[in-house]
User: Fold this.
Amino acid sequence: MAELETTNWSTEWETRGAVVLPQRRRPLWWRAALALFLVANSSLQLIDNLRDDESIILTVLIGIGLPFLAWFLGYTIWQLITRRPLLRIDHAGVHYGTSSRMRIPWDRVDTISDPIGKWLFAYVNVRPYDEKPRRLPISHIYVDDLRPFAIWLRARLEEERRSAGR
Assistant:
């Protein structure tokens, strides 16, 4: 499914009763390129350190970090292929993936923030009343333009509150 445009979120909401947003591929490609660069650079540095008997501490640190970077690269490639976890907004609430820890029903949503941060690090927080989960961040990985998305999401929250009589 391609990323929905701002005008299509409401249409999707009205016709299907839910908006499902898979991860966008462009930010994932950038993340994969960065991870690949770090894995390649760390591998070459580790080989060079082992060959020249350089600092043992640096060699150990790179040896410990390299599996983490390789896992990060693999996880990013998995996300590129599957475009998961999905972000789902429906009449039950906001869901991130399939974990029950990352679900916030509309009746527990306290606030939906304006976009926080800049460029790659921007996100919108969905905060519940009881702080469990602490917050549900929605980043640029799901939506290119977060400001209209936050406004649309707040409108859905107000609509759900009116229909629930709150």
